[in-house]
Amino acid sequence: MPELTYLEALRQGMWEEMARDERVFILGEDVGIYGGAFKVTEGFFEKFGASRVIDTPISEAAIVGAAAGAAHMGLRPVAEMQFIDFISCAYDMLTNYVATARYRAGLSTPIVVRGPSGGFVRGGPFHSQMPEAAFFHTPGLKLVAPATVRDAKGLIKAAIRDDDPVIYLEHKFLYRRIKENIPEGEDIITPIGKARIAREGKDLTIVTYSAMVWKSLEAAEQIEKEDGASVEVIDLRTLLPMDDAAIIASVKKTNRALVVHEDTRTGGIAGEIIARINEQAFEWLDAPVMRVTAHDTPIPYAPTLEDFVLPQAQDVVKAARWLLAY
Amino acid sequence: MTAGTVPASTIPAGLNREQLLEIYYFLRLTRSLEERLVNLYRQSKVIGGLYRSLGQEGESVASAYALRPGDILSPLIRNLGSMLVRGAKPVEVLRQYMAKATSPTKGRELNIHFNDLQLGYLGQISHLGDMVPVMAGIALSFKLRKETRVGLVYVGDGATSAGAFHEGINFAAVQHLPLVVIVEHNGFSYSTPTSRQTAVERLAVKAKGYGIPGVTVDGNDVLAVYEVTRDAVERARVGGGTTLIEVVTYRRKGHAEHDDQRYQSKDEIAKWEGNDPVDRYVETLQKNGWADSTILAAIDARVTGQLDQAVAECENDPLPSIDTALTEVFANPPSAERLWFRDA
After folding, report:
1. Per the CB < 8 Å rule, is A75 touching B138?
2. pLDDT less than 50: residues of chain A
3. B133:A54 CB<8 A
4. Are both A223 and A310 inside the same structural domain?
5. Residue B56: helix, strand or coil by DSSP?
6. Angle B222-237/B17-42 helices, nearest 10 degrees?
7. Is residue B306 less than 8 Å (CB to CB) from chain A?
8. How many domains does chain A have?
């Protein structure tokens, strides 16, 4: 079985979908001959041609708007944001036009908007963001954020096949750092809306997603080894629609919950997850539900500053110990 | 059909007499439908605002008339006439304004914000300029599938200030897409005159910045608008790319019915009333012997009858049932969650 990186799995998923379905095409900045800023679409231009791998002007609103128009006509566009930080330029198009289209007008808009998110790469304020909270609030959008190589492939394929608009947040720190054996030609589809138990445990539930899954797993190992407590890690995979059932089932088992995300704290989706736990599992809780997130600042450039602002495995360990001792 | 006693001169723009009368029918239908809506508005039967296109019916109808089956346009709030030409029915417009369950959007959206991609129109959203990128995407689908279809999108003078307009028209231009962008220069965006919207005199000059042809046409000259639009549409159809057309017209009513127009001069409104596109068109038809008053009166009567019937057909339709409030946010799941404090 070939070992693939997260980035290669994402690329393979898109490649397979383009080969399978001629309605699928890619548009974005520098996605053609150059293969994209991170080389996610490397080789696509040569294989699928200029009409299916379209280099666009620096116009995120036009990229998303044009994708929507093409999708109304039955095509399946995959729009790349060169860095997901730039998706804010298409906020209006996504939230007002795309997200409302089915409800207000009966229009089908099966687009995927994907791009590299997240920090830990010394990218500074505009190449490190996690944008999910800005879109999480808008009915009509789906949001996925794979943590694993397998889900990088499985979720892009599911997103492309989904009949609703999907924002796919890939994590640039994971692109070339994690590898997994993926059977060649296996048609992996990760169902949208289904979380995954990344690690089983009985004393505490950590609800997390994207790169923080790995930091949470690291923390869980350490606690098991040093404290003898068993920590369950839920990898949400899909943020919208959220798999409440998986979260609640785990919390009812462990009676303690910690939500971990890389996005900043205030207005971050941890607040929503905690509200749902409160609504659906209050009587099972033995401790308040806590969160570990980034600090409420822009993401700074210097390693000392970025490492302080972003949540680290040791922060998760500290919060988990606090909850286990409560 | 008889042309009366005056000898007919040659009809321009490749149109025939039936087409001229059909254009007249749509002009009259647009204006009369809006007059019906005013009555319903005053009876509080229109739920939201009412947006008139008085004085702009000519350019709406004539530009849409230049399209062929399979082409798609995206109207603005003052393009009721364009929608009717593409096949939207008066009863659908009435139901929309009255938020009926039977309306095309099942009471979810307002006024002429509705679509039928088979007939060839895509309803706008309220964020001005946004339909330019979306229509560029529709034109892109035509290009990718090698279809000889054309897209047409309307924006107002105000929307040329919006970022989405720039991004969309630039995208269409650089991709050489079969798209016609009509900028309706009607003098005002809500209360703001064009002079405070842009420093250019003629909006057509903006085309130069995108490397595409830009033309200005008298928006109250129905046949001139038809001809200019047809040329742009047919050029787009054969791979000639995007065109910007500035239609110069005037908004004789306020932004919506509630607007007292305190910022518009009465003299100016009166001046443009004397330049009414429907009156001018009627005069052209009669002067050239292409139609006489008898035949036009017969069309007027037909419109009146159709509108009587349309109002009667839908006036008593119900508002939407609350059972439909939560469905179709997504293809899947089929319904949003009903919150516990509203349990049935």
Report:
1. no
2. none
3. no
4. yes
5. coil
6. 110
7. no
8. 2
Residue B55 phi/psi, 5-degree rounding, is 95, -10
Inter-CA distances, A125 with A30, A122, A135, Å: 22, 9, 19
CB contact under 8 A, A62 and B167: yes
Q: If you search the block for the tokens 């959203």, which residue do you land on?
A: B125
What phi, psi does A187 have (nearest 5°)? -80, 75
- CATH code: domain B17-311 is 3.40.50.970
- Cα separation, A320 vs A314, whole angstroms: 10
Is A186 part of any domain? Answer: no
Residue A190 within any structural domain of the chain: no
Residues composing chain A: 326
Q: What is the pLDDT of residue A1?
A: 64
Query: Are A201 and A63 in the same domain?
Result: no
pLDDT digits (tens, 9 = 90+) for A54-72: 999 999 999 999 999 999 9
In a shared domain, residues A221 and A319: yes
Q: How far apart are CA B84 and CA B97, in angstroms?
A: 15
- Closest-CA distance of chain A to residue B31, Å: 25
Q: Is A127 a catalytic residue?
A: yes
| Any domain includes A266 | yes
Q: Containing domain of residue A219, as a range?
A: 196-324
| CATH number for A40 | 3.40.50.970
Q: How far apart are CA B80 and CA A61, in angstroms?
A: 27
Which residues are within 8 A (CB) of B65 and not within 5 positions of it... i.e. 6 or more apart?
A: B19, B22, B23, B26, B85, B226
Question: Closest by alpha carbon to B98, among B48, B149, B61, B173?
Answer: B48
Largest CA distance in chain B: 75
Q: How far apart are CA A315 and CA B217, in angstroms?
A: 66
H-assigned helices in chain B: 17-42, 57-65, 80-86, 90-97, 131-144, 163-174, 222-237, 266-273, 277-287, 293-314
Three-state helix/strand/coil letters over A258-291: EEEEEEECCCCHHHHHHHHHHHHHHHHCCCCCEE
Alpha-carbon gap: A40 to the closest alpha carbon of chain B (Å) = 23
Are A139 and A226 contained in the same domain?
Answer: no
Mean pLDDT of B239-265: 96
- What is the rounded CA–CA span in Å between residue B330 and residue A243? 16
Residues A163 and A228 in one domain: no
Phi/psi of residue A23, each to 5°?
Answer: -75, -15
| Pair (A11, A66) in one structural domain | yes
Residue for token pair 């991004």: B167
* Among A174, A143, A133, residue whose Cα is nearest residue A265: A133
Burial class (CB in 10 A: 0-12, 13-18, 19+), A296: exposed
- Kindly state whether residues A44 and A164 are assigned to the same domain: yes
Domain boundaries along the sequence of chain B? 17-311
Distance CA A301, CA A125 (A): 7
A176-224 residue pLDDT tens: 999 999 987 789 999 999 999 999 999 999 999 999 999 999 999 999 9
Contact A157, A188 (CB under 8 A): yes
Tokens of A76: 């399946």
CA–CA distance, B150 with A278 (Å, rounded to integer): 54
Q: Which of residues 121-140 of B touch A (CB under 8 A)?
A: 122-123, 125-127, 130, 132-140
Question: What confidence tier does B9 reach under pLDDT thresholds 50, 70, 90?
Answer: confident
What CATH number is attached to the domain comprising A205? 3.40.50.920
**Judgement on whether residues A160 and A26 belong to the same structural domain of the protein:** yes
Could you count the other beta carbons within 10 Å of the beta carbon of residue A88?
A: 16
Q: What ipTM is given for this predicted complex?
A: 0.96
